[in-house]
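During the second year of the project, the team shifted from modelling isolated chains to modelling whole assemblies. The rationale, set out in the original proposal, was that interfaces cannot be judged from single-chain predictions alone. As a representative example for this report, we include one of the complexes processed in the last quarter. Its constituent sequences, exactly as entered into the pipeline, are reproduced here:
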Amino acid sequence: MSKPIRRSTFVGARAYSLAFSVSLGLLLAQAVQAEPITLTVALAANPQMETAAKLIDNFYAKYPDIKVKFQTLPENQLRPTVLKDVATKSGQFDVVMIGAYEVPLWAQKGWITNLSKEFVAKDTEWKSDDLLTPIRDLVSYKGDMFATPFYGSSSFMFYRKDLFQKAGLNMPEQPTWDQVADFAAKLDDKSKNISGICLRGIPGWGQSLAPLTTVINTFGGRWFDEKWEPQLSSPKSKEAINFYVKLLKEHGQQDAAKDGWQECLQLFTQGKTAMWYDDTVFAGPVIDQANAEVKNNVGFALAPIKEKPGSGWLWAWGLSIPTTSKHQDAAWKLVAWLTSQEYIKLAGEKAGWGTVPPGSRQSTYKLSAYEAATKDYADLTLKSINAANPLKPTVDPVPYTGVQYVTIPEFEQIGDFTSQQLAGAISGQMSADDAIKASETKIKEIMEDAGYIK
Amino acid sequence: MNRRRSSIIDPLLTVLTWVGTLVMFTPIAWMILTSFKTEEDAVSYPPKLFFSPTLDHYRRIFENDFASFATVSILVTVISTAIVIVLAVPAAFALTVRPVPKWRDVLFFFISTKMMPIAAGIVPIYLVARAFDLLNTSTVLVIVYTSMNLPLAIWMIRSFMVEIPRDVFDAVAVDGAGRIREMVQIIVPLIKPGLASTALLCAIFAWNEFFLAVNLTTTVSTLPVFLQKFLSFGKLYTAQVAAVATLINIPVVIAGWLAQKSLTRGLTFGAVK
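Output from the structure prediction step:
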């Protein structure tokens, strides 16, 4: 008697344990499914990204199993933070926002995922043909995309139509630097505290060196010759640097050596300068934030030239996925969403067309609502971007790519040092020629140490 | 004679003190004022004293996850300061009242850890934090802030202990109290104002610390890191940042105000015996 009972107990126990393990398995599976993936995203602080953070609920609606945490940092803080993370393979970030300068360098080191190979080819919904070609090239390395362009920009001229009219001057769509210098001299009004032009003077390879390098390029100068010999003191580069410093000293804003885009944006929107040469992405904010007097009088013109046409710079902020991220697929979903046609439409409708990420997709410029909102500058932005050629940025041949920077890791150090000397020249502590001489000595040293030249 | 001279000097000193106070306070007042301006008003030239105030910037702060950063800040500051005081008191005791052998070297060793700029040590600190999986946690901040403030606290508390008259210790010895009782029941109550000012100073350092926080943490971070979220590329942000800075300053001002009594006593400790 006891045997069958025991047997049935045993069978029962087995059935129970089976049921238990099945239900446990189900529970676990459910838990895995319910546990959302959390992506940590490092972003540069800018109005376009703020909009993105605000609209993230729309992403959640599409992908309920993914959560996103944003780490927003100002540009100069974002670089070291992200670099430290990817270089030490800490894997804290699943998506990082990096500049066009970093993309090829980091791709070469294998720090960021090859998006063309892993995702773009498979994801037909994310229309890669729609991207602006120069911007697409900018975030690629050896033909493969390693970042998706969040926005792209070039540089152009902002000017005050009313002041030009009053002085009987006419800004052509394509001015030359000589014309601009002439305008600046005529519009410089010390009694009203209005400077002729505002240009970046604050040190930093991404600050004053960006506009200056475009001036060097169009004057026919270059940073290096084909053998990586520094060319700052070559006659044309020298002429360009002297021109920039002289223009800024004579007709630029006061204390120019401490001003970056932020100060120029302030001065221009407050009506304290007649012209400003800077990034095309500021066009929306300028009109938004200008005082009543300036608001309806903002004019735009292409980047001034000397010898070389199409002298505007080219920049893109791209979204990359570090190879250390454990959630590559989810990260791509976010990256693709943030750079999709769908997102651009959404941002325009929900947050206003002025804060739509510009310069990334051709289709953006065909949206009638966008066209209407940005008619003053959208055409010129597109023209500037398409005219810039990061693969051939100078008149004479060079061994590097990049318009307003040189795509080698050493350029940060070179650029920071040179721009400090330049600030010295702008503030009058030394002559422009001395600044060039000091910079070139240092550049030579850096390039020798790095093994480019012997 | 003496009275009359002081009656001339006193008002003069009062005036000078007020001038000094105003000079110190003007930038803070300007910051608070700016935080209520629109961005356009904040950068207008000449500066505007009269304007229609706006609370927009404060509203935006609370839309931006202020609470989680504030929680981390408070936690990290309170915990690290508490640990610092708990560790610094016995350390100072061992260096002053009952000095250990070679106490001068030990004292120098403590302060020598402050001699290297923190930027020089950030890479190893980062790698160690990564190895222990502590990046982006409040634990790592508690650890680094404790070690950052500890040498200073030991030196400060030691200087307060040195001021205690020898007779007190003799009396304790006669009564036969043990080391721990001597420290907890006799010395700590005597240097309480000193402890308060030390704690306040450590708390302020931890509260305002930016470099370590921005390097070691990302989404779980303190308020100074929160502040720079608003340094946005391509728009004016002076008023917005002024609003965040004002808000971050409030707890420090409150803590300082609460500790004011013991602070003045702490700062003048031992000036008059």
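Chain B has a mean pLDDT of 88. The domain at 65-228 of chain B is CATH 1.10.3720.10 (MetI-like fold).
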